[in-house]
Design goal:
The chain has helices at residues 36-39, 62-82, 102-106, 179-184, and strands at residues 2-3, 9-10, 40-43, 46-49, 91-100, 123-127, 133-138, 143-144, 150-159, 164-169, 174-178, 188-194. The chain is of the alpha+beta class and 200 residues long. Strand 1 (2-3) and strand 2 form a beta hairpin. The longest helix has 21 residues, at 62-82.
């Protein structure tokens, strides 16, 4: 039974006195105070509180820890990808090409006459034993060999594995190296064309 302040008796669960209409006590009490710093969690677009349905409050250290872990993961992935951690993609081959021609040396290493296809930017190709082109590069700026001709440097990046490699400058024919020989030469080749040296 629930009594109003006037002493009128009323059945349990009734909200107002049946005699005088006075509101009856409901039995509810004030909720205890909460730790706002713990119960209010910042999220994108607003704040989630612990009293929202289906939401559990998390400690303040959890979000920084998750963000920090994500950043570390991103850095590791970047290092893995940029560092070539995805596997062996090939070898880097460096080399020189020497043209023995006095006229070319006199013209700042720009080929002339029968060598007019040789000079800075001339294509260098490497193919496998089946004729498939594996990589291409280009001759760099030439250096005068005291009037005897010019020497050019080149680099071929990420040359795939093969049993034999054929190197060709312009369309002068190729010189073939076995994989074992290139490994012994630390993946370096020295080519030449002209009256002195081993012609291409």
């Amino acid at each position: 039974m629930a009594d109003c302040t006037q002493g009128h008796a009323n059945p349990e669960g009734q909200r107002f006195c049946g005699d005088c209409g006075e509101p009856l006590p409901t039995g509810l009490s004030e909720a205890p105070p909460t730790n706002e710093a713990f119960d209010r969690v910042p999220v994108p677009g607003g704040v989630v509180t612990a009293d929202e349905p289906g939401v559990r409050a998390c400690p303040g250290w959890l979000i920084p820890a998750v963000v920090g872990g994500a950043l570390i993961a991103i850095v590791l992935i970047a290092v893995f990808v940029l560092g070539g951690g995805g596997g062996d993609e090939g070898q880097r081959v460096s080399g020189t090409f020497t043209l023995f021609d006095q006229d070319t040396a006199d013209l700042d290493c720009i080929g002339t006459g029968g060598y007019n296809d040789i000079g800075p930017g001339t294509e260098v190709r490497v193919s496998d034993e089946g004729g498939t082109v594996l990589a291409t590069g280009a001759l760099g700026s030439g250096k005068d060999l005291e009037g005897l001709g010019c020497i050019y440097r080149f680099s071929l990046k990420t040359v795939p594995d093969a049993n034999f490699y054929e190197f060709e400058v312009a369309h002068r024919g190729g010189i073939t190296y076995s994989r074992a020989k290139l490994e012994n030469q630390e993946w370096r080749v020295d080519l030449s064309l002209g009256d002195i040296g081993n012609d291409l």
